[in-house]
Amino acid sequence: MNVRVEPAAAQSPAETAHELDAAEGGVSGARAELIASLLSGLALAGGWLTEGFVPIEATLGLYGLANALGGFFTLREAARNLWHGRFDIDMLMLVAAAGAAVLGQWAEGALLLFLFSLGHSLEHYAMGRASGAIHALAHLAPKLATRRNGDVLQQVPVDALQVNDIVMVRPNERLPADGVVIAGQSSVDQAPITGESIPTDKRPIDGSDPFPDFGILADENRVFAGTINGSGSLEVRVAKLAGETTLARVVRMVAEAESQRSPTQRFTDRFARIFVPAVLISVGALMLAFLVLDEPFGESFYRAMAVLVAASPCALAISVPSAVLSGVARAARGGVLVKGGGPLENLGSLAVLAFDKTGTLTEGKPRLTDVMPAPGIDERALLGIAVAIERGSDHPLAAAVVRDGEARLGDTEVKTATSIESLNGSGIRGVVDGKAAVLGNPQLFLARFASSIPASVTDAAAELENAGRTVIMVRHGETYLGVLGLMDTPRTGAREVIARLRTLGIRRIVMLSGDNQSVADNVARALGVDEARGALMPEDKAGIVKAMLATEGKVAMVGDGVNDAPAMANATVGIAMGAAGSDVALEAADVALMADDLGHLAFVLGLSRRTSSVIRQNLWISLGMVALLVPAALLGLPIGAAVVFHEGSTVLVVVNALRLLAYPAPRDEQAAA
Ligand SMILES: Nc1ncnc2c1ncn2[C@@H]1O[C@H](COP(=O)(O)OP(=O)(O)OP(=O)(O)O)[C@@H](O)[C@H]1O
Ligand SMILES: [Zn+2]
Predict the structure, then answer these.
(1) Residue 532 CB: number of other CB atoms within 10 A?
(2) Ligand 2 centroid, distance to 645 Cα (angstroms)
(3) Is the CB of 425 under 6 A from ligand 1?
(4) How much is the pLDDT for 28?
(5) 396 CA: nearest ligand 1 atom
(6) What is the spatial distance between Cα 611 and Cα 607, in angstroms, rounded to a whole number?
(7) Which residues form the P-type ATPase A domain (predicted)?
(8) Number of C-alpha atoms within 13 angstroms, CB side, residue 200?
(9) Higher pLDDT, 311 or 617
(10) Which ligand has its closest atom nearest to the C-alpha of 314?
(11) Is 459 designated active site?
(12) What are phi and psi of 558, to 5 degrees?
């Protein structure tokens, strides 16, 4: 191919990588605050050292400078808050500083503002690290793509890409779009989206246009914006606009998650709404202490200000948001989308999990293992009808019947079925050769045709069920053609994950399945699941989840979103597996594991538990500090010391929360197995 390259502002991979750790505005803002605060400290020290040696005006000038530098950012923030009609604890600090200054204690006022702004900027800096970790996600997608138009290659902004455009991806480049691989082979590092440590092999899709929907494409044929190409070149047909890629959606949802309040945060907010006015009233009362105690007003005022600093619940206010932010950020980097503090905290405290079976605990890739024609029926007649009908279904069982059935049929021609209709959660029907054909599980047949089923067919079905097979009965017109047996395999590593969930504190694990009870029992036994409930319709699954909620309080439902969406919606936390690419699962779930890997469930559960314990520690630190400082301030603790402890505890809770960013990465079960 003769390719002409039209240059445009090209973007090197180094540049893209750089953006990743580029600090966000939050951090650089905090840097200015930090510098101002340190300068304030210097001016303060200068004032102290020169006091008495230089004219008093010079010393006061230095103190004034220290006040100004230390107070600027706080004042600006307070003004902004007031402007927006918000009340902020930080303003109390300014009041205290102003109070100290009024008392002629310029140095002390400056010390207070210096320490306060130092603590504040460190806190902002730390919070910036957590939110930076989230915003960095947005920069994972490159800004430019190489679009191929016939033989012409052109660099275009990714926003300009249209669906069905062809983009070329060079080795080691970041993928610019969600799309279908149409040429080239490579292995792609999908960690930025799915958190999987092992690259995924990609190859061109077989067959021609129109390609299947992006959501159901095989992982080896589809790529995601933001992932990193390996050593091969790829040609990709764009499947989604830049604003609708999986990455863009995740970024949007994580941003929304940040603003969702968790139960504990709602509690601390309520607490603050009562506590802060109570503090203000008490401080007002303390200012009047000179009326009853034998002391000058100045002393009463000083004490009141010290109590104000001691009692301001800044650390409490930041305890939960900092932990939630870090937890959500850590999860996102591990390929798990957690939609806010609510799901995170609930997951951190619940002890009961319900699992869907097919595609969640099992591979979801069944094989056709048994073909048992009814007496006098040819195997090919049975398979011919089954394949004809199942071609019209997107159920995993159907895929297996078609694939393995066709293989067994060889050259035998398969008829075309019409009027295909799914019999919700139990089978499928259609018309072949002018006669109605019904395929489905024995339950369906018992309900519909109870008396007409020949004993030979019922016996064969029972035999297969006892052997742990999923059974499909086949009837064409009035004739029973026989039964098919299928088997799905448990996921590799699923047993280990179940065991790990238990060590993380999960007490009860229930499996819900539309498959027959004996298959459900077999899988449950193989994986160490406590209870198996089989033969369920999607609405039965939802009913069981509701019943479990009533007895257990909180229940998480893990599914793939195929026939368990109602159950997931009813659970305290709905967890979708393999959500990358599936917009529906992504939107509907409270927690979405982007990778199709159970190992990530243990990761996010562990992370949630850790987050909950960090939140608990933070509440102890912040409330404990207030409980200690208030009596100390009443007994004469200097304001400076009160500020040190107050700000110290604030910084401590944030740093404690940041530890979550270092929570160990998910273990890939597939890889481990
Ligand atoms: N296309 C189909 N062909 C034959 N049988 C079907 C078909 N669709 C559903 N069934 C029958 O209905 C049952 C329930 O299907 P459903 O999709 O609800 O659950 P499932 O595939 O068993 O998965 P899970 O364990 O996740 O509930 C299947 O086990 C099967 O017996
Ligand atoms: Zn504070």
Answers:
(1) 24
(2) 10
(3) yes
(4) 64
(5) 21
(6) 6
(7) 140-254
(8) 23
(9) 617
(10) 2
(11) no
(12) -105, 125
